[in-house]
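Long-time lurker, first post. I've been practising inverse folding by hand and with some scripts of my own, and I keep getting stuck on stretches where the structure tokens seem ambiguous. Below is the full token string for one chain I'm working on. Before anyone asks, I'm not after the true native sequence, just a reasonable design that respects the backbone. If someone could post their per-position residues I'd love to compare against what I wrote down in my notebook.
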């Protein structure tokens, strides 16, 4: 089959493309700019073009798969329609790819990638040889975001954005938490939670949901779905190489999964205790020339920020923590504004370089960054600055940090590039 992937550099679609290429299909794709993920796809033999005007789509393509970031009116989606090529979103295509498999889906507002990575480690160590699709690069997957296994187990990170996970047919669901996000796609917290209820109803009647029974929102969603719940809170919190209570809670979900699958408990605990994290999740990048440690993290929701900074304070109790946070869209920032202002109390200095405009079609109002900075300072009781650009933020960090400081670049946008530049 000849498959073209539009937005192939996305963390999900890149994994799908690689799996289909590994299965022997002819896969090509496009994106708007290069990345480490695209570099890796090219090393695998997948042709990727950095123009998206529609010209790269083979006229005889059998399937056109597009990322959620590719708008309906984009040149490539229009061209695929003109060519009468079968078109599917990434999650539609992933649903087809995983059909007939024993799908273990990891869903929730936060912690999906880390939990999926932990589960991949445990299942692989137990010899179950799963296929894996995860939203980050994982050491245990040879530094990639996918793995082609030989068993019928298909472990997948299931995203709720635009109800994408409704294209999956899970056998088991691990649900991390239900806090609320993506309010450009959901009308209310009730609408958001209902998406999870409807997803759990896709389980067979005997299909189990593994979640934290002590979390009222998660428990209520499971109850509304009518599916049986396995309570991860019955399992003890174990020490991990990676810091943070939220990571230990993610590990509880995997302990419960392993128990449900009949895996050896002692081996599972040992395997999890050696888990050392993933790409862009409290990832230690290196040391600046001035002696400051640089860490990069994907957190872009207030709950994630609070959890990550708490973990950093746990790991570096005496050090000064400098957080460079790039908000991901004006829309999310405005809709979760009050929660953002109180999320940074474990940082000593916070710098906001800019607002990352990921989806221009949803941006109806802009954040006043100076006001936002003042409100964070008042709500989190720390020193907060308007960085005014990533370049000026970089200069500030270089000038004001010293040996022993911890600099954490944080956000779902291009702030991750700053972490690399600080090490030069």
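-- Answer (accepted) --
I ran through it position by position. Result:
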């Amino acid at each position: 089959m000849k498959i073209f992937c539009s937005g192939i550099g996305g963390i999900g679609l890149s994994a799908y493309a690689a799996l289909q290429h590994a299965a022997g299909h002819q896969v090509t794709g496009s994106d708007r700019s290069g990345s480490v993920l695209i570099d890796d796809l090219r090393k695998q033999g997948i042709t990727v073009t950095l123009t998206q005007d529609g010209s790269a789509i083979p006229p005889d393509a059998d399937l056109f798969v597009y990322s959620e970031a590719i708008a309906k009116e984009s040149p490539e989606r229009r061209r695929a329609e003109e060519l009468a090529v079968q078109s599917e979103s990434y999650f539609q295509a992933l649903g087809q790819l995983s059909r007939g498999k024993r799908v273990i889906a990891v869903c929730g507002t936060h912690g999906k990638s880390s939990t999926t990575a932990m589960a991949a480690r445990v299942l692989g160590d137990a010899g179950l040889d799963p296929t894996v699709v995860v939203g980050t690069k994982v050491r245990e997957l040879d530094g990639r975001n996918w793995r082609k296994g030989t068993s019928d187990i298909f472990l997948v990170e299931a995203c709720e954005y635009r109800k994408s996970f409704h294209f999956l047919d899970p056998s088991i669901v691990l649900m991390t938490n239900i806090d609320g996000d993506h309010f450009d796609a959901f009308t209310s917290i009730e609408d958001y939670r209902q998406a999870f209820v409807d997803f759990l109803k896709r389980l067979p009647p005997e299909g189990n949901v593994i979640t934290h029974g002590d979390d009222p929102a998660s428990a209520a969603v499971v109850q509304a779905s009518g599916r049986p719940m396995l309570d991860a809170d019955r399992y003890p919190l174990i020490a991990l190489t990676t810091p943070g209570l939220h990571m230990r809670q993610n590990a509880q979900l995997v302990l419960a999964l392993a128990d449900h699958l009949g895996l050896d408990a002692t081996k599972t605990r040992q395997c999890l205790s050696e888990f050392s994290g993933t790409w862009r999740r409290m990832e230690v990048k290196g040391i600046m020339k001035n002696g400051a440690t640089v860490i990069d993290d994907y957190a872009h929701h207030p709950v994630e920020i609070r959890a990550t900074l708490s973990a950093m304070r746990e790991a570096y109790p005496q050090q000064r923590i400098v957080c460079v946070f790039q908000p991901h869209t004006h829309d999310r920032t405005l809709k979760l504004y009050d929660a953002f202002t109180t999320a940074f109390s474990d940082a000593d200095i916070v710098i906001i370089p800019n607002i990352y405009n990921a989806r221009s079609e949803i941006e109806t109002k802009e954040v006043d960054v100076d006001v936002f900075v003042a409100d964070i300072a008042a709500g989190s009781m720390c020193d907060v600055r308007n960085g005014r650009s990533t370049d000026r933020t970089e200069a500030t960090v270089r000038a004001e940090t010293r040996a022993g400081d911890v600099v954490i670049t944080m956000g779902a946008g291009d702030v991750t590039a700053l972490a690399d530049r600080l090490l030069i």
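A couple of notes from the structure itself: The radius of gyration is 21 Å. The first strand starts at residue 2 and ends at 6. Happy to go over any region you disagree with.
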